[in-house]
Specification:
The protein has 138 residues and is mostly helical. The chain contains 4 helices and no strands.
Length: 138
Amino acid sequence: MEQFNWIFTITWQEALISLAIFLIFFIARKLFSKFFLKLIARLSKLSKTQMDDAIAGAFYKPVTFILLFAGIYFALLYLPLPHAWKSIVSLIFKSLTVFSIGWGFYIFSGAIGIFFNRMGNRYELQFNTIVIPFLSKS
């Protein structure tokens, strides 16, 4: 129980500032969610390919996930955590960031398969149906 004594040292001011940090990131996440799709729709009209739509769609949820956990991370770092706890919180945040980026690339891998099909049709290349999923996942 001694490892949780730091909780009782948190002042009201620190708790409110930490909560405000989290709320700023939470609101930024909501604003990002609301305006991101509109911005991408406008920008995608300027290009002739659908790859930009696929990239935006693939990384939409991972970015909102990162914003949510960034708010939690920075709010916790503002609190007077012991050094060991700060290390654990930082490690968890870094792991979640890497997971989110990998999640985005995994979602994007489906669009890469469409890209390989188009390139094969454009340059009259014959891709095997087994090769395209392999290339898109790798």
